[in-house]
Design a protein that fits this description.
alpha/beta; Aspartate Aminotransferase, domain 1; seven-stranded mixed sheet; five-stranded mixed sheet; 12 helices; 35% helix; globular
């Protein structure tokens, strides 16, 4: 069965029945006998689909867990209240005092903050390595237990060679975890590329409508057993309404990502011709140094792109004049967004641009791309173009 078809049928109950699994809100699950109660508690220790207690999820959450595990190609998936909750829970499950964790230098900022401000307080040491690395030997220590990657990189979209990096990490007995929010399990599958754990902020493309907060961590092998135990022990979970909204959003994931990609590529081409623009950061562009690897490992791109404006250009004034692009955090919903960013200027993708240049991250929503371009054109016309 094709993946597009599976998206439409995840979690459907037996027929006759509703097209979507109903929202089941419950804390206590009642039994007629003590034997039934004890049997349920036994079975839930190795089967996450057993309905036993609200904290472990109702049938609504169970349907979503199965869907995300299938989407990611993993043995199992567990649901958390946000993407950062999924990241922090996975790190706490897999690391212990005295361990060393390696982060790619393009990792999501909140991930690095959690490691430096929380994990370090528990005796975990943190190291960084460049996103172009495939040989981890110079960065590994005897205490290294985990490598955390993200491809494309957060905000500036550097591409990593995950198969090569994972082979090196596994040869040293090190677990590899990936932030897969960009690819969302549809465009990119880190577990198939060699990673042990994949994390998605379902707040973005899985939900798709800017109205839900959730995160998911998927895993295979020994990492899956450790994650399952830690998530249940910590009491983390996802409310049934959020699970329902995410599963409903996933029905149209493939179609929405096609439109996001189309609009983003059109915007990238338009920006590349503007005199105010020094460069466009997007993994699918022929000018991107990692495009060949991205084409090899991914099935497409999403709605994100970052635009490097020339020094002296007033990006705040531009963003204030836009009407269809809202200024706000997050992305992955139906709406177009724009926000100023200040990534680490030592990143290889930014070294060709002046230190005084301004960078804006755009998310191309589902609006008609001609209207998005007209909005940008009108906002730029007020300020006037810079001479190259």
């Amino acid at each position: 069965m094709r993946r597009e078809t599976r998206l439409c049928h995840y979690g459907q109950p037996n027929r006759p029945g509703p097209a979507n699994p109903p929202v089941v809100r419950a804390s206590t699950i009642l039994h007629d006998t003590v034997e039934s109660y004890r049997d349920t508690k036994r079975r839930r220790e190795h089967d996450d689909s057993v309905l036993s207690y609200g904290r472990r999820g109702t049938t609504t959450a169970h349907a979503l867990m199965e869907a995300i595990a299938d989407l990611e190609g993993a043995e199992g998936a567990w649901l958390l209240p946000s993407g950062v909750a999924a990241i922090s829970s996975a790190l706490l499950a897999l690391l212990r005092p005295g361990d060393h964790v390696l982060l790619v230098d393009t990792i999501f900022g909140a991930t690095r903050t959690f490691c430096e401000e929380v994990l370090s307080e528990f005796g975990v040491s943190i190291g960084l390595f460049p996103c172009g690395t495939t040989d981890l030997a110079p960065y590994l220590r005897p205490q290294t237990r985990l490598v955390f990657v993200e491809s494309p990189g957060s905000q500036t979209f550097e591409v990593m060679d995950l198969p090569a990096l994972c082979a090196c990490a596994h040869a040293a007995g090190v677990v590899v975890m990936a932030d897969n929010t960009y690819g969302s399990g549809w465009l990119y599958r880190p577990i198939a590329l060699g990673c042990d754990v994949s994390i998605i902020a379902g707040t973005k493309y899985l939900g798709g409508h800017a109205d839900v907060m959730m995160g998911a961590v998927s895993a295979s092998g020994e990492a899956a057993a450790r994650l399952r135990k830690a998530v249940h022990a910590s009491g983390q979970g996802l409310a049934p309404d959020e699970a329902y909204a995410t599963l409903r959003g996933m029905r149209t994931l493939s179609l929405r990502l096609e439109r996001h990609e189309h609009n983003a590529m059109a915007l990238a081409a338009w920006f590349a011709e503007r005199p105010e623009v020094l460069g466009v950061l997007h993994p699918a562009l022929p000018s991107h140094p990692g495009q060949a690897i991205w084409k090899r490992d991914a099935s497409g791109s999403n709605g994100l792109l970052s635009v490097v404006f020339a020094p002296g250009f007033d990006t705040e004034a531009l963003l204030d004049r836009l009407r269809l692009f809202g200024v706000g955090s997050s992305w992955g919903g139906f709406e177009s967004l724009a926000m100023p960013i200040a990534p680490d200027r030592s990143r290889p993708s930014l070294q060709d641009f002046p230190q005084t240049s301004e960078i804006v991250r755009f998310h191309a929503g589902l609006e008609h791309v001609d209207d998005l371009i007209a909005d940008l054109d009108a906002a730029l016309a007020v300020q006037g173009p810079l001479e190259r």
